[in-house]
Amino acid sequence: AASANAVADDAEELRYTVAVVSDAAQGRAILKESYQSAIEKLEQSNLSGIRGFNAANNLCVAYLKVGEKDAATEACQIAVARIEKIIATRPAARKRSYYDDYYATLLAMALSNLGVTYAANDDHEQARDAFAAAIDTDSGASAPAVNMARLDKEA
Predict the structure, then answer these.
(1) N or C: lower Cβ tally within 10 Å for the chain?
(2) pLDDT tens digits, one per residue of 90-113
(3) What is the rounded average pLDDT of the residues 57-64?
(4) Cα(148)–Cα(128) distance, integer angstroms
(5) What is the DSSP code string of 24-84?
(6) 145 touches 135 (CB < 8 A)
(7) 131 Cα distance to chain centroid
(8) Cβ–Cβ under 8 Å, residues 60 and 76
């Protein structure tokens, strides 16, 4: 994956690729398929900033894995809103920094995961929009392009 923290995980039952932040917010538990435990801990967290993003993004994936599609969509929408807020409140810099690219990668991850939740709910138009936004945000991210191709095969 584009970020050292992002680990792709095929959602076999969904046939799409989702990504967790593996080194934060129950990411390792999710990768070990301890979804319910991760959900319980993440639901109790009251984090803001980048930690709040990590928690919402990983909660989205955990919910997807246990089939709670509406809760997954809500968590992904929160993740997108949180990373967009972080990006919007960053001070303007004269040249692009590591963090600009890093946050763009995280936004693309969250948008792609959001697209997967829409596809899981058979909302192909919103899924396509989310995957396209992810690709526009980080053209180097592979998951959104793979997910868009899968959606095009199904739709």
Answers:
(1) C
(2) 877 666 777 888 999 999 999 999
(3) 95
(4) 6
(5) STTHHHHHTT-HHHHHHHHHH----HHHHHHHHHHHHHHHHHTT-HHHHHHHHHHHHHHHH
(6) yes
(7) 11
(8) yes
pLDDT of residue 94: 66
Average pLDDT over residues 133-137: 95
SS3 state at 8: strand
Q: How far apart are CA 23 and CA 19, in angstroms?
A: 12
Q: In one letter, which amino acid is 6?
A: A
Q: How many CB atoms lie within 10 A of CB 120?
A: 20
Q: Given this model, what pLDDT does residue 92 score?
A: 72
Residue 127 has pLDDT above 90, yes or no: yes
| Residue 124: its H or E element | helix 124-137
For residue 131, give the amino acid letter: F
Please tell me the predicted confidence (pLDDT) of residue 48. 85
Rg (CA), the chain: 14
Name every residue whose Cβ is closer than 8 Å to that of residue 72 and which is 6 or more positions away in sequence: 60, 61, 63, 64, 117, 120
Q: Name 55's Cβ contacts closer than 8 Å, sequence gap at least 6.
A: 25, 26, 42, 45, 47
